[in-house]
Write a structure and sequence with these properties.
The chain has 434 residues and is mostly beta strands. The protein has a single domain, classed as TolB, C-terminal domain (Neuraminidase, 6 Propeller), CATH 2.120.10.30. The protein is 4% helix and 32% strand. Strands 4, 5, 6, 7 and 8 form a five-stranded antiparallel sheet that branches. A five-stranded mixed sheet has the order 13-14-15-16-20, with no helix packed on it. A hairpin with a 5-residue loop joins strand 10 and strand 11. The chain is globular and about 50 Å long. It binds calcium ion. Calcium ion binds next to loops.
Length: 434
C-alpha cells in the first residue's frame, strides 16, 4: 500500500440541508446503462471497473488530509495498518483488550492490535461463504454487549446459495485470539436467490441490548420483487432480534417490544423497520440510543436516516420513495408516517442542480463519534461515499464534506469508541479531529 498524503483543498461553504431537500428533483432517469444501475446503484463493494468511474479521483491508496470545518472540525484520516484482504467491516469487542476485528469479504475475521495485523485469523469461515457478484461475502460483524463474559459475537455472510445468514460464534474465553469454526451456529437464514446484490448484512446492538440487522431488498434494480414494503418479507428491512437467549428451537427470541410480535408471519414478528433498499451500514449512537441507517440509493439519491429504537411503525419509504423523491408509485399504498432522511447525497447524472460536494453514488454509513480524543467531532455522524471518496460529517441539520478517501467500505468503533475506517484495498484508517 502506498501512503502518500494528499492535501484536500478547502471546500466551499456547504449547501445547507434544506437546500438539498428542496433541490429540483428530476424524474428518475431511465437511460442509465445497466452497468451503471447494477454497479453504481448497488454497489458497496463493487470494484469500479467501467469508464463511468474514470473520474473517480481517489483510488484506495491515499490517506488524506484535513478539510473545512463542521463546527470547527478539521478531520484527519490516517493509515493505521494495511495488508488486509478486501475488508468489509470493523468492530471491537469492548472488553478493554484494545483489539480491532476486521471482517474480510472471503470469510476471515482478523485481529488488528497495536498497529499490526495478527497473522492467525480470529475466525475463518471461508469454506461456507459465497462470493458471487460484486456484493456477496462476509458482510457484518458485531460483538455481544456481554462478550467479556460470554465470548459471543455475531456475523452475517452470504451462503453458497446466496442466502444471507446471521450466525453466532463463540470464543472459548474472551481473551483468546482465535475462535473455532465449529462454534458457528446459524441464528437466522434470509433466502436471497433472486440476485447477488443488495444483501445488507449490517449488524448493530442497540442500547436496549437487542440486535438490529439490516437486510437489502433482494437485489436487481428498482425493488423488482417488491419486498421492501411487504412486512412478511425479510428483505428490505431492519430486523430486531433478542440473541441473548433461545426460544424453543430458535436461537433467538422475538423481543417483547417488537410491534408485530404476535403476527402470524414469523418473519413479520422480527420487523423493526421496513422500506430500505440496501442498508449496507447501520449503527447505534451509544449516547442517544438512536439507530442510524445509511441506505444506498438507486439512480438519484443516497440517504441517511435516523430513528429512535423506541419508535413504532418505522418505514423508511423505499421503494415508494428514493430519498425524498417519488420512485415506485405502486408501492406507496400502505405508506403512513414515512421517515424522511436527515440528509441526502445526489447522483449528478440523474438530478439537475446536483453539484459537489454533496454528490454520492454509493453511501457508506458510519457512526456518531463518541470517543474522547477528538473533542470537536463528538456528536457528529461521520459517513462516506464509496465511489467519489467523499467523507462527510452530519450534525444538527448540517452536512459538510470533511475529507476525501476512496473506496471506504465501512467504519467501526474501537473499545474506547475511537473511529476507524476500512477501504476495499485493505487499509485500516484512523479517523480523528482536532
Ligand atoms: Ca428512504
Amino acid at each position: 500500500m502506498h501512503h502518500q498524503r494528499h492535501h484536500v483543498s478547502a471546500y466551499p461553504d456547504s449547501i445547507p440541508n434544506e437546500t438539498m431537500r428542496n433541490m429540483k428533483t428530476s424524474p428518475r432517469i431511465q437511460a442509465v446503462s445497466l452497468a451503471a444501475v447494477v454497479c453504481v446503484a448497488a454497489g458497496a463493494v463493487v470494484l469500479p471497473s467501467s469508464a463511468a468511474y474514470a473520474d473517480t479521483a481517489t483510488a484506495d491508496t491515499e490517506s488524506t488530509a484535513t478539510g473545512r470545518s463542521l463546527s470547527g472540525v478539521a478531520l484527519s484520516v490516517s493509515p493505521y495498518v494495511s495488508g488486509l484482504n478486501n475488508p468489509t467491516a470493523l468492530a471491537a469487542a469492548r472488553d478493554g483488550r484494545g483489539r480491532l476485528f476486521v471482517a474480510e469479504r472471503a470469510g476471515v475475521v482478523r485481529i488488528v492490535k497495536s498497529g499490526r495485523v495478527y497473522k492467525k485469523p480470529y475466525l475463518n469461515i471461508s469454506s461456507v461463504v459465497g462470493s458471487n457478484g460484486g456484493e456477496q461475502g462476509l458482510l457484518g460483524l458485531a460483538f455481544s454487549p456481554k462478550f467479556k463474559t460470554n465470548g459471543k459475537f455475531f456475523v452475517t455472510y452470504s451462503a453458497r446459495d446466496g442466502a444471507v445468514i446471521l450466525a453466532s460464534a463463540k470464543a472459548k474465553k474472551s481473551s483468546k485470539n482465535s475462535v473455532k469454526k465449529s462454534t458457528l451456529k446459524t441464528i437466522l437464514r434470509v433466502p436471497h436467490s433472486f440476485a447477488t446484490n443488495h444483501n445488507g448484512g449490517s449488524l448493530a446492538f442497540g442500547t436496549d441490548g437487542l440486535l438490529y440487522f439490516g437486510t437489502g431488498d433482494g437485489g436487481g434494480g428498482g425493488d423488482p420483487q417488491r419486498t421492501a414494503q411487504r412486512l412478511s418479507s425479510p428483505l428490505g428491512k431492519i430486523l430486531r432480534l433478542d440473541v441473548s437467549k433461545s426460544c424453543g428451537k430458535k436461537r433467538y427470541c422475538v423481543p417483547s417490544v417488537n410491534q408485530y410480535r404476535t403476527s402470524k408471519s414469523k418473519t413479520k414478528r422480527l420487523v423493526f423497520a421496513s422500506g430500505v433498499r440496501n442498508p449496507w451500514r447501520i449503527s447505534v449512537d451509544s449516547a442517544t440510543g438512536n439507530l442510524w441507517v445509511a441506505d444506498v440509493g438507486q439512480d438519484a439519491y443516497e440517504e441517511v436516516n435516523v430513528v429512535s429504537t423506541g419508535a413504532r411503525g418505522v418505514n423508511f419509504g423505499w421503494s415508494c420513495k428514493e430519498g425524498n423523491a417519488g420512485f415506485n408509485s405502486s408501492q406507496c399504498a400502505g405508506l403512513a408516517g414515512y421517515v424522511a432522511p436527515v440528509t441526502t447525497l445526489c447522483h449528478t447524472e440523474a438530478v439537475s442542480g446536483c453539484t459537489p460536494p454533496f454528490v454520492g453514488e454509493s453511501i457508506i454509513g458510519g457512526y456518531v463519534y463518541r470517543g474522547r480524543t477528538s473533542p470537536t467531532l463528538v456528536g457528529t455522524y461521520v459517513f462516506a461515499d464509496f465511489i467519489s471518496g467523499r467523507v462527510f460529517g452530519y450534525q444538527a441539520g448540517q452536512t459538510r464534506q470533511l475529507a476525501t478517501l476512496g473506496r471506504i467500505t465501512s467504519f467501526g468503533e474501537s473499545d474506547s469508541r475511537e473511529l476507524f475506517a476500512v477501504t476495499y484495498g485493505g487499509t485500516v484508517y484512523r479517523v480523528s479531529s482536532n
